[in-house]
Amino acid sequence: MAYRTNAMICTCTNCVSNGALRVKEALEAEIGKQHLEDDVQIVPTGASGLCVKGPILIVQPEGIFYQLLTEKDVPHLVEEHFLKGRPVKSLMYVHPGEETPIPNIRDIPFFKNQRLIALRNRGLIDPDAIDEYIARDGYQALAKALTSMTPEEVIAEIKASGLRGRGGGGFPTGRKWELCRTSSETPKYIICNADEGDPGAFMDRSVLEADPHSVIEGMCIGAYAMGGSQGYIYARVEYPLAIKRMKTAVEQAREYGLVGKDIFGTGFDFDLKVFQGAGAFVCGEETSLIASIEGRPPEPRMRPPYPAESGLWGKPTNINNVETWANVPVIINWGAKWFSDIGTDTSKGTKVFSLAGNVNNAGLVEVPMGITLREIVYDIGGGIPNGKNLKAVQTGGPSGGFVPSDLLDLAVDYDRLQEAGAIMGSGGMIVVDEETCMVDMAKYFLKFTTSESCGRCNACREGLQAMYQILTDICAGNGREGDIELLEELAPAVKDASLCALGRTAPNPVLTTLRYFKDEYEAHINERRCPAGVCKALIEYSIDPDKCKACMLCVKNCPQGAISGEEKQPQKIDQDACIKCGICRDVCKFGAVKVQ
Amino acid sequence: MTKLKPEDLSGIAEKVKRTMLLREGKGRVRVLVHMGTCGIAAGARAVMKAVLDEIEAKDLRDVLVTASSCAGLCSREPMMTVQVPDQPPVKYVDLSPEKVEEIFTQHIVGGKVIDEYALAQGSERML
Question: Does A256 touch chain B (CB under 8 A)?
Fold first, then answer.
C-alpha cells in the first residue's frame, strides 16, 4: 500500500500514561470517518525524546511535531492536516519565552542540538517490526562481523573506538570483552543489564521500547567476539512494555535466524532469553544480577574473581548495559575511527541522559561527550521554568553528586564529572532550581539508598541509616553542632567498607552537597533556617500586608481554614493551624505570601 | 519463515525503503495535491487517490506526496504541484485521474513537463 502520510505516534510508557493510546484510537476512528485509511498509516513508535510534552505525534514526510495531544484535538487535526494539508499551529511546540510555534521537528532546539547514535532509530521505526530495523542498516553489522571479521578483529575495533561502559562505571568495553575472550572455560555467558533503577532515569527503557533490535544485534556481535553461546537480557520487572517489546523482538530475530543456531548460515550459535528482574535496586550491581539469574537472593559478592573469569554459574560472563550494546552495531558499521572522532580525549561517542527536574523540556537527550552542562540545560532543555535560577545539576542518580551552577561550563565526560565530585552514572540528570533545599535533596537520595541497601555489609546497612537520621534531624530543625563533621566522618567509612557500588557511592549526594552547599547545612543547624524555604519545621508562611489586595483567593483555597481577616483588609495566617502546604503562595496573584 | 543469509538483508530493506524515505522526509520528487475546500469540491480526493495508485502501480519509491491547502486559483481546481529539486515547481490545473496518470508517466518518471496541463512553472514571489 502506498501511503502518503505516516502518523508516528509515540507509544512509550510516558506517552501511554498520558493517554497516547486513547489518542491513537481516536486517530484511527477519525481517519476512518474521513476515508483516509488508504492515505495515512498510523505507526506506533518508541520515545521521541521530548517526553514532558507527550502524547506526541510526528507527521511525516513533512516532519510536523504535535504535542500534548488529547483525543478531543484529533477530529480537527485529521480534517485540517491529513485531509486539507493545513498543519494545526495550536498543537505545535512553542519555545519557552517565545510565541511563534515551530512546526518542523528539525527546527526545534531540543532535537536540533542532539546527536543520535544509541537512539538512532527513535521515532523512525515501529519497534515491533524487524523489517523496519533492517531497512535502517539493521543486522548489517552482525553480518559484517560474522562474514568478514575474526573475533579478535571485532574486539580490536571496539577497543579502538574508545567505547566505555554506559551503565555507570565507564570501564573500557573492548578491554572487558578481551578479558572474557581470553578465559578458557566454556560455556560463556553474555548479559545485557537492563535493570535501570536510578530514580528519574529512563534511558535504557527508552532504548528497549524504541529500538529493541539494536540491543539484540549488539549482543550477538559481542557473543561472537567473546565466544559466548547463551545470552540474557535482565530487565527490571517495573518495565512491562519494554519486556514485552524485547520478547517480541527476540522471537522475530529467531524466526529470521539471527538468534539461535547457525546465525546467517555461518555456523555461529547464540541463544537469547529475556529475564525479568527481581525488583530490587541492588540487582543492577553485576554480581547481584548474576545471583538473581541463578535464583539466589540478589546480594553482591567480593571481587575478584570478576565475572569475566567466574560469573554466571561460575563460568566466564560479560555484562554490559543496554546503551553500551546499542552502540556496538554502529561502531562495527561505521568504524572505530568515525566513532572516536566524536567526544573528548578520554570519553568517546555520545551519551544518553534523561533530563528531569526543574527544566522546561524534560525528556531524553543524546549528546556528544564534551558538551557543557549549560548547553544541555539551556539550549536543549530550554532553561528553568517560571524564570527561576538554576542552583545545581545532579548527575548519576543516588550514586552521583550535585554540580553547582558556577560549574555549568563543565564539559560532560566521565573524568570531568568525577573531578567535580559527581559521576556520569547511567545518565540520570536532575536539574534543581533555587527553591530546592540541598539538605532535603541529599536526604531524599539517602532515603532511597537506605531502603534499597540489601543489608549484606554493615557499613552500608547501618552507616547509611545513621547518615539518614542525621539529615532527617537537620531538616526537622534538630540539627546539632558536630553533625556536619559526623557526616564527613561516616561517609568515607561507608564507602570504604561496602562490597559493591551501592554502598561505595551512596554517600556521594551528601558529600557533594557538603562540598558546594555547606552554608545551607550551617543555616539549618546554627540559625534554624531553611534558605530555600522547603523544610517545613524551619519555615513560616506569612502575608505581606502591603501587597495583599484582600482578593480572598488564599482564604478560599486554604485546606485548613487558617487564613482570615476583615473584609477588604490584608489577611493573616494563623500559624498554629497552618500546615505549610504552600497552596496560598501558589494561588496568590500578587506575590503577597512570603516564606521565611 | 526462512532463515536469512547476509545477502537477504538488502532485499528486506528495499521492500520498506519507500516507507523509510517517507519517514526521513527524503524523496526525489515531491507532489503536492491542493486539498482546500474548493479542491475537494472539484474532485481533489479522486486526484489524490490516482496519485497514490500511480505510485503503487509504477512502484515508485522516491516520490513523496503531501496534501496542501488551496493554492489560490479555485476556478482551476483540482490542482497539484510537482517539485523536482533544482527545477522550478510545476503547477498542473483542471486535473482528472487520467491526466494524473499521464503526468506521472511523462513528467515524474520521464522528466518532461506536460505544458498543455501546466498553468505555469515557478512559484509566486515571496515577500
Answer: yes
Assign residue B113 a region: left if phi > 0, alpha if psi is -120 to 50, beta otherwise?
Answer: beta
Contact A6 B68 (CB under 8 A): no
Q: What is the mean pLDDT of chain A?
A: 94
> Does A146 contact chain B (CB < 8 Å)?
yes
What does the pLDDT look like over A265-297, one tens digit per residue?
A: 999 999 999 999 988 899 999 999 999 999 999
Chain B CB contacts of A140 below 8 Å: 9
Chain A residues lying within 8 Å of B33, measured CB to CB:
85
Residues 64-123 of chain B with CB under 8 A from chain A are 64-69
CATH number of the domain located at residue range(s) B26-121 in this protein: 3.40.30.10
All CATH 3.40.30.10 domain ranges in chain A, comma separated: 5-106
What pLDDT digit, counting tens, does each position of A361-415 carry? 999 999 999 999 999 999 999 999 988 999 999 999 898 999 999 999 999 999 9
Contact A3 B15 (CB under 8 A): no
- Contact residues on chain A for B17, CB-CB shorter than 8 A: 135
Compute CA A109 distance to the chain's CA centroid, rounded to the nearest angstrom.
Answer: 20
A vs B: CB pairs below 8 A: 114
Secondary structure letter of residue B107 according to DSSP: I
Distance CA B57, CA B109 (A): 12
What is the interface pTM, i.e. ipTM, of the complex?
A: 0.86
User: Residue A283 CA to chain centroid, in angstroms?
Assistant: 17
Any idea what DSSP says for residue A550? Answer: -
- CA dist., res. A234 & res. A553, Å (int): 52
Query: Among all residues of chain B, which has the CA nearest to that of A257?
Result: B3
- A265 CB neighbours in chain B (<8 A) are 3, 5
> What kind and span of H or E run contains B119?
strand B118-121
Q: Does residue A334 register a pLDDT over 80?
A: yes
Q: Which CATH number fits domain A130-339: 1.10.3630.10, 2.30.30.100, 3.40.50.720, 3.40.50.11540?
A: 3.40.50.11540
A148 touches chain B (CB under 8 A): no
Three-state DSSP at A263 gives strand
Hey, what's the cell of A308?
569475566
B23 Cβ under 8 Å from any chain A Cβ: yes
Secondary-structure class of domain A350-433 per CATH: alpha beta
The answer to whether residues A37 and A4 touch, using CB atoms and an 8 Å cutoff, is no
Nearest CA in chain B to A64: B25
Site from A5, A60, A116 to mutate, B interface, most B CB atoms within 10 angstroms: A60
Question: In terms of CATH architecture, what is A438-526?
Answer: Up-down Bundle (1.20)
Q: Are A178 and A159 in contact (CB under 8 A)?
A: yes
Residue contact A124–B20, C-beta within 8 A: yes
CB nearest to A134's CB, from B12, B18, B23: B12
Reply yes or no on whether the pLDDT at A80 is more than 80.
Answer: yes
Crossing angle of helices A518-526/A464-475, nearest 10°? 60
In this complex, do A61 and B25 lie within 8 Å of one another by their Cβ atoms? yes
Buried b (16+ CB within 10 A) or exposed e, B42-61: bbbbebbbbbbbbbeeeebb
- For β-strands A64-66 and A57-60, DSSP reports them as antiparallel
Predicted confidence at residue A101, as pLDDT, reads: 95
